[in-house]
Amino acid sequence: MLIIFLGPPGSGKGTQSLRLAADLGIAHMSTGALLRQAVEDDTPLGKQAAGYLDEGQLVPDELVVELVVARLGEPDCSAGCLLDGFPRSILQAETLDVYLAKRDLQVDRVIELQVNADELRRRMLDRSKIEGRSDDTPETIAARISVYKSSTAPLVDFYRERELLRSVDGMGTPEEVAGRIRAAVA
Ligand code: AMP
């Protein structure tokens, strides 16, 4: 089973996707977390990715795809995986389709979390106080929202056309949102 989470930064993708993966007993992959780890470990890939993360820009596709392919090949992904933060562009989505088709797999469901702009900003600034992520500054948050609109939001139509999309209201308590997501994947 392969489930993709889409949603702007601050929409609750991380929290909700981890929760759903645990509920369904499938693996979870956050490309943002994998990239942050690579930067922290100062790997060759991390060195190349660091500047993009700091500026809130997308890391080049070939670097991200390398991480995703390695992660999907790990044993815990054989029963399924929940993708948080990938794909983030049409090109990445097409690359994923090719990868899956070669293995007789497919995307089963795409969940889009919808949260209004004021709430997104509020949640991200709150998070920056708690987690201290270096890309949670007001400037980088604005860049990431803008990258989402230009590069990632087109995936909503891409997956809607393939009849895989379920849009979920991401406003409310984490429990309320989790309940809506469960209904959307049932
Ligand atoms: P996230 O934790 O999902 O908010 O991602 C944090 C940052 O990691 C993003 O702002 C990008 O710089 C980078 N990133 C995460 N996923 C991708 C991806 N699929 N393609 C390119 N860059 C990514």
Give the oligomer, counting copies of the same chain as homo and different chains as hetero. single chain
At the first level of CATH, what is the class? Alpha Beta
Strand order of the largest sheet: 2-3-1-4-5
Elements, N to C (H/E):
EHEHHHEHEHHHEH
DSSP, total strands? 5
The global form is globular
Short description:
This protein is 59% helix and 13% strand. The protein is of the alpha/beta class.
Provide the descriptors you would attach to this structure in a database record.
186 residues; 13% strand; binds adenosine monophosphate; alpha/beta; Rossmann fold
SSE inventory with pairings:
Layout (H helix, E strand, L loop, with lengths): L1 E5 L6 H12 L2 E4 H11 L2 H12 L5 H12 L8 E4 L5 H13 L6 E6 L2 H15 L6 H15 L1 H8 L3 E5 L4 H12 L1
Parallel strand pairs: 1-3, 1-4, 2-3, 4-5
The structure holds adenosine monophosphate.
Give a written overview of the molecule.
- The chain has 186 residues and is of the alpha/beta class.
- The protein has a single domain (2-185), classed as Rossmann fold, CATH 3.40.50.
- It is 59% helix and 13% strand.
- It has 9 helices and 5 strands; from the N terminus they run E-H-E-H-H-H-E-H-E-H-H-H-E-H.
- It has helices spanning 13-24, 31-41, 44-55, 61-72, 90-102, 117-131, 138-152, 154-161, 174-185, and strands spanning 2-6, 27-30, 81-84, 109-114, 165-169.
- The chain has a 5-stranded parallel beta sheet with strand order 2-3-1-4-5, with helices on both faces.
- The longest helix is centred in the middle third of the chain and has 15 residues, at 117-131.
- The two termini are 12 Å apart.
- The relative contact order is 0.20.
- The mean pLDDT is 94.
- Bound molecules: adenosine monophosphate.
- The site of adenosine monophosphate (AMP) has 18 residues, from helix 2 and helix 3.
